[in-house]
Write a structure and sequence with these properties.
Elements: H1 11-27, H2 32-39, H3 43-51, H4 61-67, H5 72-75
Helix pairs in contact: 2-3, 2-4
Length: 77
């Protein structure tokens, strides 16, 4: 049976993911608007990812990582 592609919800995990995402975006010298556009997600969704209030779906993680010029594994705690 395939695993669902839903969000990961543990609060500590979300906070660490958010910090890594923000650091990767800043290292790539991108604004949140630029990163969201590159990942093809809404600006408001991107802000929620970076604040730790929301996690992206697992199947969106490769596009989000590519937008900030890193590997998905580097974003995961």
């Amino acid at each position: 049976m395939p695993r669902p592609q839903g969000p990961i919800v543990a609060a500590g995990f979300r906070a660490e993911f958010a910090a890594r995402l923000r650091a990767a975006r800043e290292k790539a010298n991108l604004t949140p608007e630029q990163a969201a556009a590159a990942a093809e997600v809404s600006y408001s969704a991107w802000l929620m990812y970076e604040s730790g209030r929301r996690m992206p779906r697992l199947d969106w993680l490769p596009a989000i990582a590519a937008a900030v010029k890193t590997k998905p594994q580097k974003l995961m705690p």
